[in-house]
Structures are given as C-alpha cells and as structure tokens.
Amino acid sequence: MDLLLHADDIHASYDQRRILKGVELSLHRGEILGLIGTNGAGKTTLMGVLSGSHKHDSGQLMLAGEKYGPDSMEEAQACGVGLIPQNFRLNSDLTVAEAIFRETFQADKSHDELRVQAIKLIQDVGITLDPDVKVGTLIRAEQTLVEVLRMVAEEAQLVIMDEVAASLPDHDVAVLHRVLRMLVGQGRAIIYITHRLDEVRSIAHRIAVMRDGKVHKMLEASRTDVDELAFLLLQHKLANNSRPTDPAPGDEAMRVVELTVEDSIRDISFSVSKGEIFGLAGTHRSGIYQLVEALVGIHPSTSGRIFIQGKPVEIRGLQDALRLKIGYLSDTADTLESASGIVEGLQRSDDTSGANLQDEITQLRGVIELVRRMRINTTNIHGAITTLSGGDRQKVQLAKWMTSDCDVLILSHPSRGIDVGAKETVYRMLQELSRTGVAIILLSSDLSELVSWCHRIGVMRNGEMVAIEANANTNEDALVHHMLGEKFTSGSGEARRVKS
Ligand SMILES: Nc1ncnc2c1ncn2[C@@H]1O[C@H](COP(=O)(O)OP(=O)(O)OP(=O)(O)O)[C@@H](O)[C@H]1O
Q1: Nearest Cα to 434, choosing from 392, 458, 393, 406?
Q2: Measured from the CB, is residue 416 less than 6 Å from ligand 1?
Q3: How far does residue 193's CA lie from ligand 1's centre (Å)?
Q4: How close are the terminal C-alpha atoms of the chain, in Å?
Q5: What band does 373 get if pLDDT is binned at 50, 70 and 90?
Q6: 462-473, pLDDT tens digit by residue?
Q7: Cβ(131) to ligand 1 under 6 A?
Q8: Residue 142: what are its φ and ψ, rounded to 5°?
Q9: Using CA atoms, how far apart are residues 498 and 500, in angstroms rounded to an integer?
Q10: 98, 126, 152, 210 from 131: Cα distances, Å
Q11: Does the keyword Isomerase apply (predicted)?
Q12: What is the ipTM of this complex?
C-alpha cells in the first residue's frame, strides 16, 4: 500500500509537561487506523500536531513523501489533512449545504451553487440528508455525517476523527462506518479514535494502542480481540461484573403517570425505586431526551403527573428539579465553566466556602481520593479544567453529580469519552451510590452498558414507552427489537455494532 503519513519520534508538551514522548506511526492510503488509549494517553494531542493546532517540540513528520509540520489548521487543511474534533459544535443556524462547505476552499461560491454541489455530494456518499434544513434541527448522528461530508468537500486525504461516535446508537454507528469504508475505498486514509473496543475492531484495519505518550503496540484488527485490547490498555484483565438481576431494594423514589409533552411524548408511566438503576433506551427520535427534559423541567410536560416520595410535584424548570433533589447530567458537551479549576469541579456541592483549615484539608483529601479513584490524569489539581483531557473532564462532571446530595440522579451517557478502565470505576461508584438509596435514571446508546448496569430498562419508541424489562428477562437483542419495532437477531452484541 501507498504510504501517506509517517511520524518519527514525535515529542510534544504543554507548559513544560511532556505529553508525547516519541510517537512512531505510519498510515497508508486506503487505510483506517484505529487509535485507542486510556484517558490522557495523548491521542488528542497527537491529532493536534497532525492537524496543525499544536506544535510538536521535536521529531519528523512526512506526508505524501514530503516533510510536513503545519503551523495552523488552515495550513494542515491546505495539505489535505482534516480533523473532526471530540465534541464538535456546529452553528445551528447554518443549513446542511452551508455547514458542509464552511471554511472550505469552495466557501465563497454562491448559495445556489453550493446547494447543488451538496445534493451531489450527499448522493455520491449514498446517505439521506436534506441540504436545506438547519443543522440545529439534526440529531447528533446526522451532524456527524455533515462533518464527514465537509472532509470530502475540502478534499481531505487524511481524515482524523476524534471520538465522533461516542454517544451514537449502534445503527447510526453502522451508517457512519459504511461512509468511512467508502471514503477509504476512494484512496483516503482515516485515523479513528474511539474508546469502544468492539467498534474499533470492526472498523479499523490496524489498531494503534497509545500509552503514556507513545504508540505502545500496533495490531492487525482481524488478529486481535476486545480482551487483548483491554489488557494492552490497562495492563490487567477487564473485571467480569455480574448483572444486577435482582429487583431494586427500596421504596418508590419517583413515579411518573401519563406524562405527555405535546408533539414528542405521550402517556409515559413508570416508577423508579430508591436504590434502583433504571435504564432508558431508544433511538434519538424515540422521545427519551424529551422525557428526561420534562422530568427536570427544561421542557415541562403539558399533561400528566410526577410524584416524588409519593407526593405530587410541579417541575417547571431546572431550579424546581434541584429543589426536589433531582440532578441531571446532560450529554451536550461540557457543562463545566472552562475557567473553573479541577478542585472546584470535584468539590462536593454542599461544601461551604470559608470553612476552617481542618475542613479545607478534609475537602482536599476528598478531591485527591476522587482523582485517584477515577484515574484523572493531572499533575496539578489546582490547575484549570481546560488542562484535562476530554475523558478526564467528563469524569469531573460526573463526579460532581455523583457527590451531590440528590435523591434522583438522571445521567445521560455518563461514560461518554471515558476509557474502559475508568468505566468500571464509574459503574462501581454508581452501584455504591444506589446502595445509599439514590435512584438513578441512566440514558445510554450503548446497550451492553444498560444491560450490564441497570436493574430495569425502559424502552421508548415514537414517543411512547413500549416496554419495561427486568434485567433478568432481557438482553441486547430484545432491547433492539423494542427500539426498532422489528425483529433483530445479531447473535452477539459485538456483531450488532457492525451491522447496518
Ligand atoms: N490545553 C492543555 N493544557 C495543559 N495540559 C493539557 C491540555 N490539553 C491536554 N493536556 C494534558 O495532556 C495530556 C494528554 O491529553 P489528551 O487530550 O491528548 O489525551 P487523550 O488521550 O486524548 O485523552 P481522552 O481519551 O480523555 O480524550 C492529559 O494528561 C492532559 O492533562
């Protein structure tokens, strides 16, 4: 195969802290290279070097046989290297056609011309997307495809994708994979970062395992398995946690009766017990997001009732939810103030400022213990949140809610961006929290996570709750069946992620 990129002994740092410590990497045209690594291993930093947003200190890069070292993203783009970043955000007012061509060399063309070109591009790639709708109305999977089309429009030869599938449901991941295979079929190359080990095996030709700023191992995807990849990452085996097949122990924490939000959800009824982890599954348009937004008052219900500890309550806004001790971690990118520090992010919300020295020491001990337990990669807990890697920022957001004094905690994609090792810790912490009587409602597009973590799982389709399954009676196939309303037999969870 034709060599496109070669990285030799790349070193890079942030403020004197060495992050990349001699990366060796090569990539061929027509190849998808999976890149995995624990949180803070240096994946995003390396991609920053390749895409022109971070300058390396030493080492040599060659692109298409020529020396390469972009000083800016524009320069990288001009050399045919494009990046779709972790948690990318699109200006919601742009139409699909405008978003595809924004900041590309074709951006100056008239609206009509771009529209015609967008239609052709969408057809060529073989997906369904309306060029005239505003990107703000698209679901995350569709926005991801817009970003992929932008890479095609700017004729990128090397496309870097940093955890773009992190909260996409399996069937959207399958569509994305189909498009990526087509792109490499045209001779482009892709570097694909993910924390989903089964996914990387199904999409990549080779897999680079990064550890502590270096490519520790390079493997043929067809000759490895999830256990080997996990072992290479963690240096120990993944724990085999037992599923929570017994019913949840406690009294009722929350009851929802015939909850309706005009135009999105109808007559939803269910209850969650104290100490229960209740999963919610459904496609993006199923209504699960509208349901939780009604439960926390972001878009209040138009009819129906909510009871907390048996008492009817009104939830018309987030403040009402907080007053009733209902916490909500959404999955819409970072909710932490970027100016805030790691310590503030991890302090319990009931900690009092101006406490005496002894209290301050106790608080700091708590923070240090959380950093250790969640394996947050930092050399300075007094540093800014922005100095953490994406996955480590997510751990801080999650820890903030897990240590808050809530009776009901609603978590959307809590393990988004978190590596497989830290995921186990998150699960143990959720279990501990539920044992203290907190009721947890968990949204996740990763069905294996719902089946491994939840006592019961409610499945929504077309705005209705179509099934509530006890863990002991369900599996991933049964959940997909309810989600799509049609039979789906994959044989294994792993196979599902690669089917379209
Ligand atoms: N802007 C920054 N300033 C200072 N340090 C940073 C900055 N960005 C990242 N780092 C540090 O560099 C290290 C590598 O971060 P990087 O984002 O490359 O990791 P990653 O492998 O992409 O992790 P993740 O899987 O969590 O996205 C981290 O330990 C992080 O603390």
Answers
A1: 406
A2: no
A3: 14
A4: 28
A5: confident
A6: 999 999 999 988
A7: no
A8: -70, -40
A9: 7
A10: 8, 14, 15, 38
A11: no
A12: 0.98
